Amino acid sequence: MNNPFKNFIKQQDTNVIGIDIGSSAIKIVQLAKVKGKAILKTYGSLALGPYVGLSPGQATNISQDRLSAVILDLMKEANVNTSNTGVSIPIRSSLVTLVEMPDLPEKELATMIPIEARKYIPVPISEVALDWWIIPKEESKAFDFEPKKEVAVSQKTEVLVVSIHNEVLNNYSEIVKRASLKTTFFEIEMFASIRSLIDRELAPVMIFDMGAGSTKLYIVERGIIRRSHIINRGSQDITISISQGLQVPLEKAEKIKRNLGANSEADEKTVYDIIDLTLDYIFSEAGAVMLGYEKRYGKTLSKIFLTGGGVALKGFLKYAKSRFQTEVVLGDPFSKVETPAFLTDILKQSGLDFSVAVGIALRKLQEFD
Prior knowledge:
Layout: E1 15-21, E2 25-34, E3 37-47, H1 64-77, E4 84-89, E5 94-102, H2 106-117, E6 128-134, E7 156-165, H3 166-178, E8 182-188, H4 189-197, E9 205-210, E10 215-221, E11 224-231, H5 235-246, H6 250-258, H7 268-297, E12 303-307, H8 316-323, E13 327-330, H9 344-350, H10 355-365
Parallel strand pairs: 1-4, 4-8, 9-12, 12-13
Antiparallel strand pairs: 1-2, 2-3, 5-7, 6-7, 9-10, 10-11
Helix pairs in contact: 1-3, 4-10, 5-6, 5-7
């Protein structure tokens, strides 16, 4: 018998959006939970440069009012139809560090960690939001990001300490409010990337995230951040190098970079020689980070996930494979999401820039579990 009240029962809205406010663009992903599965409803991206008189692809310093306006424009363009959201916080606006602590019960650590954290945080502890996670011991098979309730017997235990200045949180809260959105959390971008890209990897892996203004490296073991590092060069530096090397405006240099393999505006060998100078610096520094980790822990990385808009450059995967002595793959942020079949090939390329937005949306969906 059909339920006569079904039309009077309010259905729960399981649509959510994840927002990634980057230095050169804002990315948005809307997901819905249907029969326990994450379904892609829509996604989109808008460059910030044109809003402040710069070219697409250029890093910007944009006001809160403008950011809110861009978010509203993007939501309209992508046909977003929900206000339930989570928002990422750039790693530059946070402090993430590993701290060695005595192997004590969690209640005791809870009183000691804020005191210890003062050594690493350059502002009064009262001015930051502080969180921390105990790193599981080697024998623990943990894949989530929740604090561990039990700690194996040992002289020392490692604790991941995370802090965000209250002013940063207030600024992002104001952006969300002006965009008429409802959020229950802000999350540092690297945790969102881990959620979307990595699936129960036991051996250490690295996420190589190349954005416009910087390249971020995250070494992850058993779902836990072991090291993070920022290289102050990104895809924008490639554009600047092409502009200077070919003596063309930045806008044309960006077009040449994006159209490699499909244009005759410049000699491609010359362009790749110019690009190589920037990439050599980035990969050399990434190699040093890997080596430092391997020496400290006596472990080699099993895989490197490439993500971010910068790695969509033609030939980037091949170049990366030639520089790293381990498996290198393009990240697939939508691998944990059901997507329309016709978008499969498109998302393999355009989806590289959405690992943070997808990860944020996936966390938001967890609120319906």
